[in-house]
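All the exercises in this workshop are built on plain-text protein records. An example says more than a description, so a record of this kind follows:
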Amino acid sequence: RKGIKMPKVSVIVPIYNVEKYLEKCINSLLSQTLEDIQIILVNDGSKDNSGNIAKECEKNNKNRIIYVEKENGGLSDARNYGLKYATGDFIAFLDSDDYIEKNAYEEMYNKAIEENADYVECDFIWEFPNKIRVDKQYPYKNKKEMLSFVRVVAWNKLIKRQLITDNNLEFPKGLRYEDVEFTYKLIPFINKFAYVDKPFIHYVQREGSIANVQNERTAEIFTVLDNVIEFYKKIHMLDIDTREIIYLKIIRNFTFKEISQILGKNEEWARTKFYRGKLKLKESLKDEKWMWCS
């Protein structure tokens, strides 16, 4: 697009009914100390004033912002749509109700260049109405450790665009836990990962957001598990250890109560079937409706 030179980083921001938060999010991107940045705002069929806010921001910042709109298709669909417009050397995702520290992408990009990394991860801040909590990690020693401890969110990462395009990676449309599937499908192709020990992202907690709603769609985690396991089979990277790591990493994010609700069991059943907080897959779910564990 004329007016936007080849950027170092393309940031994809999916937008849906976030008029109260959007301007703060966009301003945090426009304030980035990294100058060569492309901001892609994807209006996923918003029904509030989000679209007008985004268009006004583009109007005043045509050298950095691309605004596109589409029919509502969900978070994954909006991110995938935005990827078509990305021309940066690296890709970042930021949710439109969150915001980011002004030096984030400069420091993460510099870290990628310094360490010849095609993946950079940073820490983030859980931002509640009355408190905050810093979510910290440490550098992964190898991919097995990354499989075990990676934070399965898309928005605290800087990813070499070529990794995504060369391997035809995308977010699964129509499923919750899209970040889980995307992250685990990305890991096998990472050549070098790096870590910046700073909490750059403000992960804003609000009522009604997807992350804070537990409902019947919570069971979609098992579909995501199926998809990830089949993918690892396809690329011949599924040994016994990897299979167990993926299962336990994903499932341990749920409480006993949530697992029991998903499987239609009582909470005591879930506790019994979890040994010291770890899911004994073959024993607990054998012959149950979730046949992915066999």
Observations:
- The CA atoms of residues 127 and 204 lie 5 Å apart.
- Residues 274-294 have pLDDT under 50 and may be disordered.
- The two ends are 50 Å apart (CA to CA).
